[in-house]
Amino acid sequence: MSEWITPAMLSFAATTPVLADKKKYPNFFRTVPSDNAVNPAVVKFLNFYNWSRVGTLTQDVQRFSEVRNDLTNELEKADIQIADTESFSNDPCVNVKKLKDNDVRIIIGQFDENLASKVFCCAYNLNMFGSKYQWIIPGWYQGNWWEQANSTNCTTKKLLTAMEGYISVDFEPLSARQVKGISGRTPKDYEREYSRELQQKGVEASKFHGFAYDGIWVIAKTLTRVMELLRVKQRKNTFHNFTVDDREVGKMVLDVMNETNFFGVTGQVMFRNGERMGTIKFNQFQEGQEVKVGEYNAIADVLDLINNSIRFQGVEPPKDRTFVRLQRRHINVPLYSILSTITILGMLMGGAFLFFNIKNRNHRLIKMSSPYMNNLIILGGMLSYASIFLFGLDGGFVSDKEFETLCTVRTWILIVGYTTAFGAMFAKTWRVHAIFKNVKMKKKIIKDQKLLIIVGGMLLIDLCILICWQIVDPLKRTVEEYSLECMQLGPCGLFPDSKPPDRGEL
Fold it and tell me: Which residue ranges run through the membrane (predicted)?
């Protein structure tokens, strides 16, 4: 058997997405998920809450740009709209403002903890937090990072206010499943033993210790399996000289590593094109600390959120955009009811006066006051009252076609009613004027028939104008859009986020 060196390389801490390029690094494996591994988990999380419109805010360095580019591809595959993509180097406030101007509500951030404090300070000053917004950021920051990395003019209290409710995403350092793995230990057993060794040696813990431990098992299982295959091959070639070159052994090592499948302290250890299919955890910032709210299993492509653990600032998850709903602005029903009641009382009063006037028309005083003119005044007033009912009817009560007819009818009734009442009063006033203008004090009689002719003439003029109006330019229904208004069903930003342009009918 010739001496060989395996071409396979195994890392337990290299998370950069560059190493996923199999054309450049065909023999590279890692037990730790890459930075890109969180992207399918983020997409799954977005789909869970039906968020189909997001924005990205990325620190302008290669590590974050690569993750953002991969995330863009994942979002496009999932048919999720990227409303805005912003990158910044030092001051993120201009970019955060652009996200707000583009009505981005779900913001996926890729930046380190030093700039995270600046981002959330900008978010606080722009009021981009609370029930209307959801921030999703990396989850590998140090504990209480906002205290150590705060280089802004925002106080810690302001930062905590803006940070409340953010979701952080990172790989799970140790599995939450308490089952014995290939080492015969549960993840909890391993963690206790690791902590005990740290105390004895007085060294600091590493975030990647579990991946290093599982990496040793990957190497051990790979070498064991390769040796078994070589022995089997050697037995089959007992009658021939058995030789194997480095290239063949190297290929066997790669094949065996790609077939790796066991449960370790970091979860199920499997590779897909050299990439670790691990578990991604979701934490939420709640009242000053991060709380685990769920995890994503990349092998099964399953998102598991802990029941009632996620706390949104509103009564429900924020919406991914401002929803504009076109709706008609109707007459207020209680107001219409009150005015209709008053109108009915007015018409009843007018009817009572009309009855009284007709019944006592032969009474000397009534007869002297021109009862026919009085009746016309009452009838004109009652027609004007009737138009109030018609003006209160809108698209909520009648169809669009009926509404145009209604516009014409109510206009005619109001004009005819007003002219009848005003014409009768004008005729009576004119008669008094004509009588007292007689300086010779001769007896002058102006009968009601002449006054009726005056009223009839005024009505004839109105009818001619109305008929010409109807022929030349008939009334039509038009729609007028008003400015956006916030719905009164709850705080702006909750569902529905805002009230649409109300429509009035003319």
Answer: 335-356, 376-397, 409-430, 451-472
Q: ∠242-244-245 over CA atoms, to 5°?
A: 150
Euclidean distance between CA atoms 160 and 431, whole angstroms: 84
Q: Are 174 and 278 in contact (CB under 8 A)?
A: no
What the block records as the tokens of 325 is 């709903």
Q: Which of 75, 148, 61 is nearest to 110 (CA)?
A: 61
The helix/strand/coil state of 218 is: helix
Amino acid letter, residue 69: N
SS3 at position 476: coil
What is the full per-residue pLDDT of the chain (506 aa) written as tens digits? 444 454 689 999 999 988 988 888 989 999 999 999 999 999 999 999 999 999 999 999 998 999 999 999 999 999 999 999 999 998 899 999 999 999 999 999 999 988 999 999 999 999 999 999 999 999 999 888 888 766 778 888 999 999 999 999 999 999 988 899 999 999 999 999 999 999 888 888 888 999 999 999 999 999 999 899 888 887 777 656 667 777 888 888 899 999 999 999 999 999 988 899 889 999 999 998 999 999 999 999 999 999 889 999 988 999 998 887 777 777 888 888 898 899 999 999 989 988 998 888 888 887 777 888 888 899 999 999 998 888 888 777 777 778 888 888 888 999 999 999 998 888 888 887 777 776 665 566 677 788 888 888 999 999 999 999 989 988 887 777 777 766 544 444 443 444 444 433 33
- Which residue in 199, 201, 219, 203 sits closest to 211, CA to CA? 219
- Set out the domains of the chain in order of their start, with CATH numbers: 1-31+175-265 (3.40.50.2300), 33-173+279-321 (3.40.50.2300), 329-481 (no CATH)
